[in-house]
Amino acid sequence: MDEIVTKIEAMKARWMTGGSAEALAPPDWRGLLDQAPDLDLLALAGQFSRIAMRPDLAGRVRQKPLLPRLGLPPLPSDARPLFRRAIALKGVEVDRVVTLAAARGHAVSPLDWMPTPGATGLPAAYGPWLDWLADMEVEEDRPTAETWDAWSPQARLTAIEALRRTDPDEARTLIAEIAPTLSADARHRLIGLMATGLSDGDADYLTGLETDRSAKVQALARHLLARLGRAQADAGAQAELAAFFEVKRAGLLSRGQVVAARKLKTNAQRNRRFELAQGLPLAALADGLGIDRGKLIDAWSGGDGTAEIVAMTAATGTDDDADRLLGRLLTQTDPQVDVTPLFPRLSAEARLRHAPRIAATETRHFALTLDCLGPALGVLPYEALHRSATVTRLIPLLTKGTPDYAERDLIETALPNLGLIASRDAARRLLGDLQDAGLMAADPRLSPLRLNAALEETQT
Amino acid sequence: MTITLDSVTALAPDQASLNAAGKLMKPGKWPLRQAAADTPLVWGECQGSGANPYRVVFDRDDQGYKCSCPSRKFPCKHVLALMWMYADAPEAFAPGAPPDWVGDWLGRRRGTGAAAGTPPSARGKSLTAATAPQPEPPKDPKALARAQAAADKRAAETEAALMGAMDDLETWIADQLRGGLSGLLADLTARCRAIAARMVDGKATALAGRIDELPPAIMALRGEERLDALVGQLGKLVLLARAVRADPSAPHLRRAVATAERREDVLADPDAPRVTGLWDVVGERIRTRRDGLVSQATWLMNLGTDGPRFALLLDFFPASAGARSSAFATGDRFTADLAFYPGGPPRRAVLVDRRPADDPAPWPAPDPDPLAALAAGETGAPWQIAAPILLPEGRIFLDGGGRPWWRATGGSLSLPVSDLPDGPVLGLVLDRLAGLWDGTRLSILSAQTEWGRVGFDG
Known about the structure:
The complex is a heterodimer of chains A (460) and B (458).
Chain A: H1 2-17, H2 27-30, H3 37-52, H4 80-88, H5 94-103, H6 127-133, H7 153-166, H8 168-178, H9 184-192, H10 203-208, H11 215-227, H12 235-242, E1 245-250, E2 256-261, H13 267-279, H14 282-289, H15 293-298, H16 306-316, H17 319-332, H18 348-361, H19 367-373, H20 382-385, H21 389-400, H22 405-421, H23 424-436, H24 447-454
Antiparallel strand pairs in A: 1-2
Helix pairs in contact in A: 4-24, 7-8, 9-11, 12-14, 13-16, 17-18, 18-19, 19-22, 21-22, 22-24, 23-24
Chain B: H1 5-11, H2 15-23, E1 32-35, E2 41-46, E3 54-59, E4 65-67, H3 77-88, E5 94-95, H4 100-109, H5 127-131, H6 141-179, H7 181-186, H8 188-201, H9 205-212, H10 214-219, H11 223-246, H12 251-257, H13 263-268, E6 274-288, E7 293-302, E8 310-318, E9 333-340, E10 349-356, H14 370-377, E11 387-391, E12 394-398, E13 404-408, E14 414-418, E15 430-437, E16 442-449, E17 452-455
Parallel strand pairs in B: 1-5, 14-16
Antiparallel strand pairs in B: 1-2, 2-3, 3-4, 6-7, 6-9, 7-8, 9-10, 11-15, 12-13, 13-14, 15-16, 16-17
Helix pairs in contact in B: 1-3, 2-3, 6-8, 6-11, 8-9
């Protein structure tokens, strides 16, 4: 066998440079040759290599570990096609469909979807897959300074955020140890995790960060300190900002107070107000106006200046401030106000409480409701949705049948979003409503709703 | 609005389309005809002249339609036939839920509404005329004899041309060996183009297409693999040329070098083996060839014990006809009668009859030595390029250069893999694997895993 292989190699070498290989043929083959010996040898050599020789995986080989099983059971088999169709829809964010499945207690099949390496914002259950994608193998339940690099970025942030909930001091110690070794952006992300479980025990460390080499980190530290009521405000800037606002008497007998922005005359004034609001905490503005922070929120009149109040509250207010301000703004139903900066400051309970009111009135085809709900998708009851402004506009468009461009945008955005925010019962009932309005059951745009309706709600 | 005979007439682009549709009005040509109860969708699958069936759907309300055939007439005869049958007898359509491919069409067409423009007119077209028996021209014995003589002459000329082409091919290969394969590798595309053109002149069109595909296949390999692959491919061409010269009328050889038989010829051929079984769609390969044709190859695996393990449904259509959707999804199963093209090891086939099957039968056990079994199965046609293979449990490994290999559990067999997509496959145990082995690379069609079936588009 080895002799034949050697001979064939010699024949190939001859053919490579050109010429007859007849004299190099294995002795046993010579009796088979006819009038065109090189063609015969070519056919024999090709067949010999195909039949008698086997590929050999020699040398250093690498095998990835088996894809880990996740803590959540996989989607039921009948829901997998619905998932695939839902994520194939234009404009649907895959992460949100994955989040809906996770909220219902299921992980998706790796054959249908895999996260991209280094992805962030996914349900924590997908951490093992992110580690697998990043070729990370970790056995500890939390990173340490020594094992930091062995963790994928998403996994270590998730682990530290979890540690902030259970042992905030330990987490702060770890952050303080790691942060100086990171780039400004990575440091900003890591220190931002201290918003979870923020307490007076963090004040000294945060105060030290006010001299960090990154202005972004300095601002973050000031904001976190402000949430603890330890903000240092420049008196001049505080007075200047307060001068842009006024506290007025209002109501019967002028007993109530209303806080409103003073009318501006120039864009330069508007820019200056915005700049001051970026650098000062909400408490400083309240102090400047001579009222307390809660009163400022409760008395806020809406309209011009709201963006500054929202930004200051989101950055430097307490969680309760954010909750109160959002509640206040939702009563004013001003569609121009962007309240999304407040959402990350809301507790899970507050998100669920505010989402139905947002869904009822919003004009962004439920995109705002999705942002408000965050990871808690698939929860809104039928009553919160079927009379909402969006569904009320949607149903006649479906019945009408020939939507224009803007109407089609509404249909194609709102339908998938409905599937992401509705509870299972709401999804089922909405499917009936939408089909009654003229949509076919097989319409791909109903895939998220059908997926939702197919997934049982988990018991909490 | 719903479908009526008048609206079918009006929609037809011309009387010829109606005539052609009339010939498709046989339930036997339609393995599947269904209508949704709650939506105006009607769909079906028509066994046309190709190996893969055409998928046809229309909307009863707005008369929108879609067919997967490459016809440039809109609507094509398949759509007209399905509408016509529905207008004639809607009760003959089984109720059902729209399958995924209907949903996909629905998703793509939404919002377009009814087509604007001139409403279709029935003027100049007639269903009655389409179903009227066509008078056969009187058969003149002298004309028939002349036609037969002309056919015989053509066949003799074709055979002579093919023989000339085989001689030219062997001479060309001998020249390459004499001049050095290094020179051929350096100028592979141009030289292959030249001999392929000569094969076209010699009526060896299939062989010309095969030679045209040689350069990209060789150049896709690593430098150190190209000589071995070239020797293997040229050796196969020598074997094929010798076989054609020995038996120029053998149908499988004619198919390999010239043209394949028509579907009707295969169905009428008593030598074409028929196999009835439970078939699993293991994969599809759609390739645009250098000659401007798109080949659509659907690979089926026989889950029973009788007949060949694999079957290939192969269609060609011009690339200018646009993208064509898949005839089947990987993982589809059906019970079907297949007629295999005659001669040689049975592989290429046409569907004779097909019935849906929901049989959870597992994939069969692979041969203990899959490569040996594959070689034994190729004895009658050693010139074939790639052959389907069923492999046992294994995993994907990466060699020192990061290139993927499939290796059987226990390490008894390792095969280098082509076209491995990103994704979880590197972390999965592949319980069974169906692929195409060309002697150099394994192209995976699909595999069974603990997570379910994973398909590779390739």
